[in-house]
Each structure stands twice: as structure tokens, then as C-alpha cells.
């Protein structure tokens, strides 16, 4: 099944989801592993909670309540942070990065998806994910807002989250021109992070008499450092739950993003 975890993958996450020894109360009716696998199934397939296969997974009510509880407790963020550091050490990088990349992506929202907005630039009505990633494309911060919120308006919150998670090791932040000007200055002043704006090379195309005034059109080349976060967007959209926003509260939409990349890292580290 789409959400199944191998024994090696579950061993990397088990202690975060199993109850602490010595706690009183009724024993769990369903194994925590089956509940986590059910969450991964919903993430991967985009299925609604009510359509969980009852022959394989616990009742949808139990799975949904567990997901909400774990999201509020920060379990998915904690799992991702652990796996991110392990992967960086495996590829011979420092546990915490010194450089990051910031970007946003607008996605459609379903009618029951809570407060939505319209992104005039992308012509999308829904929500916007603001991401900060390291130079390997691994998440440092996730902020979900209405699609009407400008990139620069949410940048401060995203960078503050990334700096808190990295313990102050973040020194350079790569961004596109949407974050230039006052936004970059405020980030540098508040967090002591140098913002490097990467601008796209101009492309001119004319279909009239002036065409000879311009050099031949060059192929599109993703600017250095910027392609990393674009790849992260592509990784996330392998999970159908993230293609469209269905959760009323943005907080739960953020939890799905942390779980999505945690699932990817589990498959790498097993």
C-alpha cells in the first residue's frame, strides 16, 4: 500500500509516536505504526479521511484524531528535524546549514479548505506555501497563508522559524526579486542573515521589425541556488494531498508538508 513503512523506516520514527513507558491509562486499541501508515496513505493518495481502507487501517476517526494531536504536539516537525540532520551528516555536511533558500508556491484550495485568497500573479485562488530550505532542498521552515498574502509579508515569519530551528547557524539566504528592497533589509536587521537576491536574466523576443536589435534568444537557465527550492516544490507535489488544500486550518496544512518530506527522508535513510 502507498503508506506502508518498512521495519527499518519505522525504527527511525518509532520512539516519537509510541507512548512513553510508565504512563497510566487504557492500552491503545490500534498500533501506532498502523496509524502513522494511514496518515502516510492519505498524504500520498490524497484520499479523504472517510475513504481510508477499513480492511487495512484503523477507523478514520481514530487516524484523524491522532494526526491532529501529533500535529499540535509538533511530532512531524520533530521527526523531520531528526531525519534532516541525519541525512546531512550522511552526505558529509554539518548538521545545521549556513545557507538557505526562500520561495513560495500558490496552490488551489477546495471549497471546504478554510480561508482562501487570490494570487493575482499566478491567477490561483487558494493558499500559499512559504518555504525556507537548505542547499540540499531540505525544509527549514514552512508557513501556510492565504494566496493573497505577498511573499515579502510572510518572509519574516518564515526566516524567524528557520533561524530558530538552525540555532543561529543560518548566515546567507538566497531569494528572488520578490524579497528585494525593504524586505531584505528587515530580514538582515532582525536576524543577521545576509539576503542575496538572484535575478533572472532578461529575455527579449520580438516578432516585428525590431527583432534584429536583440541578440538571439537564449534558453531558460534556472539561476544558481534558486533551482534547489523549485526541486523541493516538485518533491512535495508527488503527494496528492499537497496538490490542493483541503484543511480548514493552515496549521494542519503545514503538518502535511513536514510529514511529506519526513516520509521522503525515511526512504533515504532506511
Write a concise synopsis of the structure shown.
The protein has 270 residues and is α/β, with parallel strands linked by helices. It has helices at 7-17, 32-45, 60-73, 75-90, 151-166, 182-191, 227-236, 250-269; strands at 99-109, 117-119, 124-134, 139-146, 172-175, 194-197, 244-245.
How would you describe the overall organization of this protein?
The chain has 8 helices and 7 strands; from the N terminus they run H-H-H-H-E-E-E-E-H-E-H-E-H-E-H. It has 270 residues and is of the alpha/beta class. The protein has a domain at 95-199 and 219-241: Ribonuclease H-like superfamily/Ribonuclease H (Nucleotidyltransferase, domain 5). Strands 1, 2, 3, 4, 5, 6 and 7 form a 7-stranded mixed β-sheet that branches. The longest helix is centred in the last third of the chain and has 20 residues, at 250-269. The radius of gyration is 21 Å and the shape is globular. The chain starts with 6 loop residues before the first helix and ends with a helix.
